[in-house]
Q: What sequence folds into this?
């Protein structure tokens, strides 16, 4: 899952070397934390949050195949 988020984020931003993805366990499943450069934050979120919603949907679909629950959090 971590590689999927990292690949998607690096494909969208101008500074792919600044993309950091960390993974930790939470009460309700795995929490993926995505950190990007400040100037690329708008590219990840997208207009009205459509891009981040699409990333979260892809992540949820991939996690459902493995019977996992994964949440994506964007760090500023």
A:
């Amino acid at each position: 899952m971590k590689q999927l988020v990292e690949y998607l984020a690096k494909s969208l931003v101008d500074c792919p070397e600044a993309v950091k993805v960390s993974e930790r366990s939470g009460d309700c499943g795995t929490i993926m934390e995505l950190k990007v450069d400040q100037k690329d934050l708008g590219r990840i979120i997208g207009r009205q949050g459509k891009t981040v919603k699409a990333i979260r949907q892809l992540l949820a679909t991939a996690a459902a195949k493995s019977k996992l629950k994964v949440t994506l959090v964007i760090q500023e």
Notes: The beta strands are 20-26, 29-35, 70-75. The two ends are 21 Å apart (CA to CA). The chain has a mean pLDDT of 94. The chain is about 40% helix and 25% strand.
